[in-house]
Amino acid sequence: KESLQIYDLKSSAWAIETVDGQDVISGLTQNPKSLPPQYFYDDRGSQFFEQICELPEYYPTRTEAWILRQFSHEIAKMTGACELIELGSGSSTKTRLLLDAYQALGNKLRYVPIDVSGGILTESACDLLQDYPSLKIQGLVGTYEQALAQLKPTSLPSRMIFFLGSSLGNLTPQKCDRFFSQILAALDMGEYFLLGVDLQKPKQILEAAYNDARGVTAQFNLNMLEHLNQRFAGNFDIQRFEHWAFYNNRLNQIEMHLRCLETHTVCLEKLDLTVEFKARETIETEISRKFNLEVIQRELQVKGFKPLAVWTDPQEWFGLILSQK
Ligand code: AVJ
């Protein structure tokens, strides 16, 4: 179909140069052990994440959607016609609120979803085309880094890169700084960056969101090991690990780990890697930083973004920041 193109950056010559799985090797041979959170999102992991977004304890998705529902028309008016480029698009559910607003401007609708999970990207792109007949989609399957380096100029007056759901929280301050540089490098002068961030709030609300009663977050966390088994011919036994998540007050971040229940050895054949696990040893799978709106705005400004507007919900649980290069 003319209106849908999907490029798999993982299989492009450029992507092959970066040896696949090096990040897993370095994470599992360090002390303490860690794994990069993008390994959550195989097709099954993306489905678990969609379920998390519907959980009563997991407030970020519905709070951000509320903000978008209130203010997407204001956002569209501020930027004017834009190509919409989404990092970590997943199911593109919240994106529809932006598409509605940009459609109302009466210009051409162009959407560039970027995700590491090709399954969910293709599926949601097809759903969107059903509901937005004039939409043109060019999807990119790959990491943010791969995709940002491949963005093309647009025939529309401008572009807006948007990064919702507080996925920024997965990055340490140092990686966050590098990421902002990559965004700046990908944008031309006058183009836009829309960022959704989860805000600091009482610990019990945060911890409940990552320890849901139904145990979906635990399944999501453990699924990373199944993904590694699939991808690298591994023999992780998820029965020998448990989900562990808590709020670190000092660093203002949720930390998610997998805790090993008994001493044993795991092999990942395709990585030529053997790893010893001790009982009670942990693998850090994710940090999810919680932000202060003023502080993150200042950081954007120091980096060279012009802050244009901030929106939040009545409880100030989540924030949306529009800035311009
Ligand atoms: C998609 C990274 C924003 O940190 O809240 C949800 C992922 N992890 N439950 C988050 C996640 C556990 C989510 N982000």
UniProtKB/TrEMBL annotation:
Gene Ontology MF terms: L-histidine N(alpha)-methyltransferase activity
Record EC number: 2.1.1.44
Domain Histidine-specific methyltransferase SAM-dependent: 22-324
UniProtKB keywords: Methyltransferase, Transferase
Alphabetical list of Gene3D superfamilies matching this protein: Vaccinia Virus protein VP39
Protein name per UniProt: L-histidine N(Alpha)-methyltransferase
GO biological process, one term: methylation
UniProt signal peptide: none
Species: Zarconia navalis LEGE 11467
